[in-house]
Amino acid sequence: SSLFVYPTKIIIKTCGTTQLLKSIRPLIQLACTMGLMICSCRYTRGNFIFPKAQPYPHTSFKEEIIFLENNLPNNLYYRKASVLPSKLSSHSWHVFSACDESHILMQNMPDELYTIEVCMTELDRVLAGKFFRRPNDGKNGDSAGMEMTEITGIGDINPDALICDFAFDPCGYSMNSILGDRYSTIHVTPEDGFSYASFECVGSIYDDPNDIVEVLKKAVQVFRPGTVSVSTTYTDHEVWKCVAKAIEPLGMKFRSCTMDEFPATGSVVFQTFTTRRK
Amino acid sequence: MAVSGFEGFEKRLELHFFGDDPVIGNMGLRLLDFESLEKVLHAVQCTVVSAVGNHYFDSYVLSE
Fold first, then answer.
1. What percent of chain A has a predicted confidence (pLDDT) above 70?
2. Which of A27, A100, A134, A277 has its Cβ near the most Cβ atoms within 10 Å?
3. In this structure, are residues A258 and A84 in contact, taking their beta carbons and an 8 Å threshold?
4. Would you say B29 and A7 are in contact if contact means Cβ atoms under 8 Å apart?
């Protein structure tokens, strides 16, 4: 799981049975003590593998929306929730977005940054095995994480970035990478039967499109997953077209693409890919 | 699929704020003390296991 704190922006991403939405009210209150008012909110997730294990308010998307509606202030008047489906019944993308009047007016001034969220399942068993700690390895979470970053090739995804990594015991891995005002993050649950890895990064519409293609290629190659879903969030660009250019050369077949628009957030494009053998 | 196991799929929340105080404007939420952040994370059921920051933002790797 990861937390990113910018001067006027917070991003928090958590897995397992964490109750993420319970952070909304205390974060708004803390920001208020700094003289800051909330002006937009975006909540996203894929389909849980074990939905029945999720505690309130994550018991269903409907419950999550009700919780969000009840815990956001009234100035975030423009609200929308939607589920973007795919051809794979186990993969859909849940999005809730809310913003105030000023953000609606700013929609005519596109944000240069876009966000790409990649979810990967059915990881290659050999590659997933690299995210298990060796018994009595004499390492702590930081040093074991550093070793995993190196041997898996994660460190090569963006060699210029500063990486903060951690290996969990007996398995699992998280890393945040930072470079200038951009972040990327990887989280891995390697256990066979419910293996999962995510990659998320931020890009700019002014970047060379080949850069994001190469980054996505490198990130997916670390895991060689059976299924990949990619959500691209942007306000004024067609960066989502780069996604297939990155994923398909890795032997994966494009399965579906859905799109929707949200207040403040802009457009969200959800694409899925599976290995050709499926 | 296994009957039960660790849920990998994440929930992601992004909040944006605004303020008029130019002093706060430079650092803003980054001025929040670590103890306050930990209290929020406690409500979520996470803790910080590693951290790094630069001129622009702070990044924390969390448990779970």
1. 96
2. A27
3. yes
4. yes
Strands A37-45 and A196-204 turn out to be unpaired
Instruction: Give A149-200 pLDDT, tens digit per residue.
Output: 999 999 999 999 999 999 999 999 999 999 999 999 999 999 999 999 999 9
Chain A residues with CB under 8 Å of B50 CB are 141-142, 145, 164-166
Residue pair A30/A13 in contact (Cβ under 8 Å)? The answer is no
How far apart, in Å, are the Cα atoms of A204 and each of A143, A150, A208, B59? Answer: 32, 27, 9, 20
Q: What share of chain A is helix, strand, coil (3-state, %, to 5)?
A: 30, 35, 35
Minimum CA–CA partner of A140 in chain B: B49
Burial class for A155, CB neighbours closer than 10 Å (0-12, 13-18, 19+)? middle
Closest CA to A186 of A210, A209, A208, A161: A161
DSSP 8-state assignment for residue A221: H
- Whether the complex's predicted ipTM is more than 0.85 is answered with yes
Query: Cα–Cα distance between B33 and A24 in angstroms, integer?
Result: 17
Contacts of A29 in chain B (CB under 8 A): none
Strand, helix or coil at A66? helix
Find the residue in B nearest to A99 (Cα).
B16
For the stretch B18-49, pLDDT in tens is 987 776 668 999 999 999 999 999 999 999 99
Average pLDDT, chain A: 94
Residues A189-241 pLDDT 10s: 999 999 999 999 999 989 999 999 999 999 999 999 999 999 999 876 788 89
Average the pLDDT over A21-41 and give the result: 96
CA neighbor of A46 nearest in space, from A111, A99, A92: A92
Considering only CA atoms, give the Rg of chain A. 19
Fill in the DSSP letter of residue A232.
E
Cross-chain residue pair A3–B56, CB shorter than 8 Å: no
Shortest Cα–Cα distance, B54 to chain A (Å):
7
